[in-house]
């Protein structure tokens, strides 16, 4: 591991990882809360019409482009009101992990990978609820619940895949075929010389394909 990265990791752990932090608990919060809201949304569905199911692929595409533009925009460029997002990503995540040192050293390093609980709650409140209410009003309640369920499933998939990319390559999850291929794209993105120009999708590179920023 390059010396700069090693020094930064030590500093990050001292400054940003509280003594009582447990990576497993953090993951349990994200997947527990996300899974509970996802299950709640699914049990609300009633006699879904064929046209209403279209909400699933449309939400998937919307989430993929939001991931792309969120990452290409405020996560790599400082924007007013979104300093926390920029700091956590460009200044911390990308210095903690580079293409030469992608692996975390232990569960406490999940702090540098997963979204902090405060941002998870913020995104739920700021995006999911207002859009859900709007969809229930302009479309149908089924469409609103399908939107909430699909976007949550997408978010949990994002957290799962991103954590998998930063596991040791010998870990069984990191060795799944699709994970291995996507991990290589994300490793390229972690090269400091390339991070602001390519592979902005963390999950499936649809945005990168559409906007010509995919680099294999
Ligand atoms: Zn990463
Ligand atoms: Zn990035």
Description:
This protein has one domain. It is 61% helix and 0% strand. It starts with a helix and ends in a 6-residue tail after the last helix. The protein is built from 8 helices and no strands. Bound molecules: zinc ion (2 copies). One zinc ion binds next to helix 4.
Rg (C-alpha, Å): 18 Å
Give the percentage of residues in beta strands. Answer: under 5%
Number of domains: 1
Round the mean pLDDT to the nearest integer and report it: 95
* Unreliable residue stretches: none
Helical residue percent? 55-70%
Structure summarized in a few sentences:
24% of the residues are buried. This protein is 61% helix and 0% strand. By secondary structure, the chain is mainly α.
Labels describing this entry:
mainly alpha, binds zinc ion
Map the helices and strands.
Blueprint: H1 3-16, H2 23-43, H3 55-72, H4 83-96, H5 117-138, H6 141-165, H7 177-189, H8 206-210
The structure holds zinc ion (2 copies).
């Amino acid at each position: 591991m390059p010396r700069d990265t090693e020094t930064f990791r030590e500093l990050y752990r001292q400054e940003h990882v509280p003594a009582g932090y447990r990576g497993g608990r953090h993951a349990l919060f994200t997947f527990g809360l996300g899974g509970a809201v996802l299950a709640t949304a699914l049990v609300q569905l009633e006699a879904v019409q064929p046209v209403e199911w279209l909400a699933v692929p449309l939400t998937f595409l919307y989430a993929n482009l939001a991931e792309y533009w969120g990452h290409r925009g405020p996560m790599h460029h400082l924007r007013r009101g979104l300093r926390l997002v920029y700091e956590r990503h460009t200044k911390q995540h990308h210095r903690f992990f580079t293409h030469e040192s992608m692996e975390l050293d232990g569960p406490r390093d999940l702090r540098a990978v997963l979204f902090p609980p405060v941002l998870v709650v913020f995104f739920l409140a700021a995006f999911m609820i207002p859009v859900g209410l709007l969809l229930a009003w302009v479309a149908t309640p089924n469409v609103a619940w399908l939107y909430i369920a699909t976007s949550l499933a997408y978010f949990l998939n994002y957290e799962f895949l991103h954590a998998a990319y930063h596991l040791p390559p010998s870990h069984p999850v990191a060795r799944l075929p699709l994970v291995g291929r996507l991990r290589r794209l994300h490793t390229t993105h972690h090269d400091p010389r390339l991070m602001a120009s390519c592979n902005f999708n963390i999950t499936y590179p649809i945005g990168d394909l559409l906007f010509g920023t995919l680099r294999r």
